[in-house]
Design brief:
It contains 14 helices and 13 strands. The protein has 429 residues and is an alpha/beta fold. The protein is globular, with a radius of gyration of 21 Å. The longest helix has 29 residues. It has 2 domains: 150 residues, Aspartate Aminotransferase, domain 1 (Alpha-Beta Complex); 237 residues, Type I PLP-dependent aspartate aminotransferase-like (Major domain) (Aspartate Aminotransferase, domain 2, 3-Layer(aba) Sandwich), CATH 3.40.640.10. Helix content is 40%, strand content 13%.
């Protein structure tokens, strides 16, 4: 197998011991979880926190009794945790919902209520459809114009110059992904935000795919909104939205009348997933543990951040460094197999511009056929379009069953990469 670039000390065996799912066997075989771009496994601490919440604090918000008071503490802890992870100025700028898609539909509806016919919104062909369709629906409902930013099909990179050319005095929203859930490309979202703000437009950043792989700093990005999902970073099924305070207070929220009219409560429609919020706090604490154990080499880069915020930044940098070794091994192995064609960034010198999510086709094999054969061998991965509909249409593969997607995370190992590559070579041959 190909060699991998060096990385700071990182012990995946110590990490894997924290994940019960990674110890199980299915039909006598230990699975390889390479389906992570669709959702990660969770550590035992997350499972335990959710169980404890349902035993000790199974109540509703705002009551004058013990279980409700414990619940309110848990909700505050979850807001604090996500504010630390995203470096938000205040926990009150963190909004929870069932998933990123629902949150985006709600915010887009509220923004749309403030717009006029002829206003414009910019979306990209690189995005998951959850950061496209809500804006298309907003445009339909308010007679707006939609501008589409493209990406280079050869390099997998967003055409930033093209995006900038689309933004004008009537642009009101620029929606863009932090990292593509198909191509794996990490976009220069700081530049995207600058382009949007240059004409007074709002920026809406989908960080769902990026959050498990690298550090996020909403203040440095200056993003107006940023969304992610905890089931992509080792937590329960929840959506999280960060918004600048002025937008969360100003925009017209669609809510029931008795609900508070102050942020963040005005955006959280109905009863939340309370046990999930307890699990979210545990997931953030797990990531902080990684920073404590393996992030020492990155102390200089994170000196500006104190407490858990600094620990979480060191965690993200340690994870990214380790995952680049998996990406290098995976990329070299895929390129060595005859009949395998990869989309996206394939230059090994530019692995810092992508997350370890790769899409590919195999000559003579339908994507579903490859995924099914891999599944029989205990290797879990995805086929199809994974809701990256615009990507597959642009690559010309949507009518052909999409592409195969493989996506390791930091609990995966080089040995698992080799097992996958050996299986793929057999299938392709």
């Amino acid at each position: 197998m190909p060699s991998s670039p060096p990385a700071p000390h990182f012990d995946p065996s110590a990490i894997r011991r924290k994940f019960p799912a990674l110890r199980q066997k299915v039909n006598g075989v230990q699975p390889v979880y390479f389906d992570n771009p669709g959702g990660t496994q969770v550590p035992a601490s997350v499972i335990g926190a959710m169980r404890q919440s349902m035993i000790e604090a199974n109540s509703n918000h705002g009551g004058a009794f013990h279980t409700s008071e414990l619940l309110d503490q848990s909700i505050r802890a979850a807001r604090d945790a996500m504010a630390d992870m995203l470096n938000a100025p205040s926990p009150d700028q963190i909004v929870f919902g069932p998933n990123m898609t629902t949150l985006t539909l709600g915010i887009s509806r509220a923004i749309g209520a403030t717009l006029s016919p002829g206003d414009e919104v910019v979306v990209t062909r690189m995005d998951h459809d959850a950061n496209i369709s809500p804006w298309l629906l907003m445009a339909r409902d308010h007679d707006l114009t939609v501008r589409w930013a493209d990406f280079d099909v050869e390099t997998g990179r967003l055409d930033l110059a093209g995006l900038e050319s689309l933004v004008g005095e009537r642009t009101r929203v620029v929606a863009c992904t932090y990292a593509s859930n198909a191509l794996g490309t990490i976009n220069d979202v700081r530049r995207v935000v600058e382009i949007a703000h240059g004409t007074g437009a709002l920026s809406y950043i989908d960080a769902v795919q990026y959050a498990p792989h690298g550090p996020i700093d909403v203040q440095a990005l200056d993003a107006d909104f940023l969304v992610c999902s905890s089931y992509k970073f080792f937590g329960p099924h929840l959506g999280i939205l960060y918004g600048k305070a002025e937008h969360l207070e100003r925009l017209p929220a669609y809510k029931v009348r008795p609900a508070p009219d102050t942020a963040p409560d005005r955006w959280e429609t109905g009863t939340q997933n309370h046990e999930g919020l307890a699990g979210l706090s545990a997931a953030v604490d797990y990531l902080a543990w990684i920073g404590e154990q393996f992030g020492g080499a990155f102390g200089g880069e994170t000196a500006a951040f104190e407490g858990r915020r600094g620990t979480l930044k060191r965690s993200a940098l340690a994870i990214a460094a380790y995952e680049r070794t998996l990406s290098a091994r995976l990329l070299a192995g895929l390129e060595a197999i005859n009949g395998v064609h990869i989309a996206g960034i394939t230059d090994p010198d530019h692995l810092d511009e992508r997350v370890p999510t790769f899409i590919f086709t195999v000559e003579g094999k339908a994507p579903l056929e490859v995924a099914e054969e891999m599944g029989r061998r205990g290797i879990y991965l995805w086929d199809g379009n994974y809701y990256a509909l615009a990507v597959m249409e642009r690559l010309g593969t949507e009518g052909k069953g999409g592409m195969v997607r493989v996506g390791p995370v930091h609990y995966n190992t080089r040995r698992e990469v080799d097992r996958f590559l050996n299986a793929l070579e057999d299938i392709a041959g």
